[in-house]
Write a structure and sequence with these properties.
- With 449 residues, the chain is mainly alpha-helical.
- The protein has a domain at 32-71 and 80-350: Up-down Bundle (Cytochrome Bc1 Complex, Chain C), CATH 1.20.810.
- It has 18 helices and no strands.
- Helix 5 (88-98) packs across helix 6 and helix 6 crosses helix 12 (259-284).
- It is globular, with a radius of gyration of 26 Å.
- 28% of the residues are buried.
Length: 449
């Protein structure tokens, strides 16, 4: 015990010296309440950790990658038996996988890391959606986060074609057709995306967007997102209390856990666990490089994008759904998510008090999961309207029934608790207004009900 006390005292003195000389308390991130030390509160930090790994692994891959469609005459061409047609972009990827020490592991972790980053971004999004973190005063933080999610998907889209495989090239062309159908922006984006109309021009633009343009946008948006987070602090737990404060006071911040070193080491622990898991998966299931663009010796496969765009490709397979309709549907979803803070005006943040928002969120998630799995099982197969209705209508109907049932049950139990406490809602089946419900009563009877 004596050694432990001496060690902790020495460590505290050392850390105090570092804080004093660096002024760290003035520039480190704000402290956080103790109740936030659960993985569910740090989904945003997990996305940042995944992004940082993508930056590091991507920079290492840049040492070997060649963004060129010109045929190569290296040992790569001899290895695939097509000396005069194997593009340099594909061959440089082939070289990374087969000749660079641990290159296959590096490339596989970069690819799986992209999948993980997109998945974690969706987890972060849906958590915020269901818990109502977009409500005042965090409206702009939500909007910036939505743009971050779109930029992350853009990174996945532009990076998919860089190995210059035939399946990725075909999927990118289909995606570009959809992008060019965007109202107003599509025709404007065309010259910037397609360049001079050649394969080299397309690859060069995708490479520039993936390596320079979108990472810069991601960095700027991430800075704005963190700055807004620092301004308002972490969102309090979801509650049915309409009078709940949405900010922590300075006195509450003083009692919270400091970012350095406690929170920093907490996040670092999860970052190391993430990297270890990523390397383990990549070592067990390394990525196999498909054939290159223009390899006439191999039968072309079905055009299929990565999993995060499978849902959109499947929607286009629905009979009567044109690219314009698919892009229009996507635009409506994006606008709904982007302006959700101004569409959902309820002051309560608990999902049980927002049945319409809950229904729409469940429906979107169910629709995405269904069409993604459907697209993976039957890519490129046209689906007739009866089959579309047979698969999709039950999702919305069941979701409406479940949400309606739980909302009715909650309202019933809520009115029973009010009656037991000698209180009456202002309207049958409605919550008492702030004028008739004190914060203490609302928090004790509703939030924990």
């Amino acid at each position: 015990m004596g050694f432990e006390r001496w060690f902790n005292r020495t460590l505290n003195r050392l850390w105090g010296f570092i804080e004093d000389r660096t002024g760290m308390p003035k520039w480190a991130l704000r402290p956080q309440p103790e109740f936030t030390f659960k993985p569910s509160y740090w989904t945003g930090a997990f996305v940042v950790n995944a992004f940082l790994y993508q930056v590091v692994s991507g920079l290492l891959l840049l040492l070997y990658y060649q963004p060129s469609t010109n045929p190569t005459y290296t040992a790569c061409g001899q290895a695939v038996g097509q000396l005069s047609t194997a593009p340099a972009a594909w061959c440089s990827t082939f070289y990374i996988v087969n000749s660079v020490p641990m290159g296959s592991l590096l490339l596989s972790t970069h690819l799986y890391g992209a999948y993980a980053m997109i998945f974690l971004a969706f987890v972060h999004f849906f958590r915020g959606y269901y818990l109502g973190v977009y409500k005042a005063p965090r409206e702009f933080s939500w909007m910036v986060g939505t743009l971050l999610l779109l930029a992350t998907l853009g990174m996945g889209f532009t990076g998919y074609v860089l190995p210059y495989t035939q399946i990725a090239y075909n999927a990118t062309n289909v995606g570009l057709v959809l992008a060019l159908r965007l109202p107003t922006f599509g025709p404007l984006l065309g010259p910037f995306i397609l360049a001079d109309g050649t394969s080299q021009g397309l690859l060069s633009r995708m490479f520039a967007a993936h390596v320079v343009l979108i990472p810069l946008a991601l960095g700027a948006l991430l800075y704005a997102h963190i700055a807004l987070f620092e301004s308002h602090g972490i969102a309090p737990p979801a509650t049915s209390d309409p009078l709940q404060r949405r900010r922590f006071t300075e006195k509450e911040d003083e009692k919270a856990v400091p970012f350095m070193p406690t929170i920093f080491f907490y996040i670092t622990k999860w970052a190391l666990a993430y990297i270890g898991l990523l390397i383990g998966i990549a070592a067990l299931w390394p990525w196999n490089l498909p054939t290159y663009v223009g390899n006439v010796a191999v039968t072309p496969g079905v055009t299929e994008p990565d999993w995060y765009f499978l849902w959109l490709f499947k929607v286009v397979d629905f009979y009567g759904v044109t690219p314009v309709i698919a892009v229009g549907l996507t635009t409506v979803i994006i606008l709904y998510v982007l302006f959700l803070p101004f569409l959902d005006r309820s002051k309560r943040t608990h999902p049980r008090d927002r049945p319409i928002v809950l229904f729409l969120g469940n429906s979107l998630m169910g629709f995405f999961i269904l069409t993604t799995v459907w697209g993976g099982l039957t890519p490129g197969q046209q689906i007739l309207p009866p089959e579309v209705a047979e698969r999709i209508v039950p999702i919305f109907a069941l979701n409406a029934a479940v949400v309606g049932l739980f909302y009715w049950r909650y309202q019933k139990s809520y009115r029973a608790r009010l009656a037991a406490a000698g209180k009456t809602p202002t309207l049958p089946g409605a919550y008492p207004t702030p004028a008739t419900a004190t914060p203490s009563a609302s928090a004790s009877e509703v939030s924990h009900g």
